[in-house]
Amino acid sequence: MELRAAPSIPGVIRRVSFQQLATPDQIRAAFAAGTVDIATMPTTVAANLANRDADLTLLGVVDARLLHLLGPAGAPTTWQGLRGKTVHLPFRGDAADTMTRYLLAQNGLTADRDVRLAYHSQLPELTSGLAAGQFEYAVLPEHMASLAVRTATAAGHPTQALLDLQQEWQRGKGSALVQTAVVIRGALARERPGLVRVLQEKITGSVGQVRQAPNEAASRMVVTLQAPEPVIAAALARLDPEFRTAGSARTDIEELLKVYLASNPDAIGGGLPSDDFYGA
User: Fold this and answer.
1) Residue among 70, 71, 117, 76 at smallest CA distance from 93
2) Backbone angles phi, psi at 137, to 5 degrees
């Protein structure tokens, strides 16, 4: 989202600065203190913060092919092909874990019985394990999925994306897997409703530019992501992102949150957010 490059933003926003926050509590504190006005985060984290009375409003969500099941080149591209296998995952209870467990169940498999799930605390453990031939199957988000395919294949362990969890979710649910949220400080949204509309327009345009020219976008992300430009370009092309405003995506958002409500309610703060969360 390149607000600094948008020609009409200077008339609305004088200065833009960026920072990375590591935990939901840090995000919550930053919004409460007014030191952060706009943030991107997992949709589940946004819902959790809203349910913990953080004053934030959802601008919209990004619908993207973010999570991929990787496995040996030539392996079956079906869930049943995982029977008796071990799938390596980043972090117990996060999006990759919840989605994998849900989709296994939807395809007649029981996690930890039909398919063993193994967890790791660091994403590089998964890419290095695939490259070393220690792991066969893993679920990774982009850009790490594209990096893992490249490094494992170069190391003599041909690896490919077997299943796209976005497509699998859509096939079963009939809705988009909207995992990434863009939120604005609630007080700011109430004070400047025109700003909400401008931001939604600019984010829509920015995401559209990434879809149309992933190579150009990749060149601007090398320093931030610390990955080779071809890997980032491949990841962006595979992501195929689309931004949707909060109101237009509410049904899909709630379909996602209901899965967490049934399997891991604490992840979203114990319930569905109120109407105030959704903004325009």
Assistant:
1) 117
2) -125, 140
Residues 216-225 pLDDT 10s = 888 888 877 7
Which residue pairs from 153-161 have beta carbons closer than 8 angstroms and sit at least 24 positions apart in sequence? 153/73, 155/131, 157/72, 157/130, 157/131, 157/132, 157/133, 158/72, 158/73, 158/74, 159/70, 159/71, 159/72, 159/73, 159/130, 160/70, 160/71, 160/72, 160/73, 160/75, 161/68, 161/69, 161/70, 161/238
What is the distance between the alpha carbons of residues 254 and 265, in angstroms, rounded to a whole number?
Answer: 13
State the average pLDDT over residues 61-80: 95
d(CA 270, CA 79): 30
Q: Which residues, in sequence order, are CB contacts of 113 under 8 Å at separation 6+?
A: none
> Can you tell me the distance from the alpha carbon of 82 to that of 193, in angstroms, rounded to the nearest whole number?
49
**Residue indicated by tokens 């799930």:** 117
Tokens of 154: 């170069």
Chain mean position to CA 154 = 27
Other Cβ atoms closer than 10 A to 153: 15
Cα→Cα distances 56→39, 65, 95, 178, Å:
10, 26, 21, 18
**Which pTM value belongs to this model?**
0.86
Kindly report the CA angle at 139 between 135 and 142, in degrees rounded to 5? 120
Cα 232 to Cα 225: distance, rounded to the nearest angstrom: 8
Percent pLDDT > 70 in the chain is: 93
Instruction: Give 184's Cβ-side CA count (13 Å radius).
Output: 24
**Average pLDDT of 233-246?**
89
Q: Can you read off the two tokens belonging to residue 60?
A: 């919209």
Closest CA to 59 of 169, 145, 178, 165: 178
Determine contact, residues 31/56, Cβ cutoff 8 Å.
Answer: yes
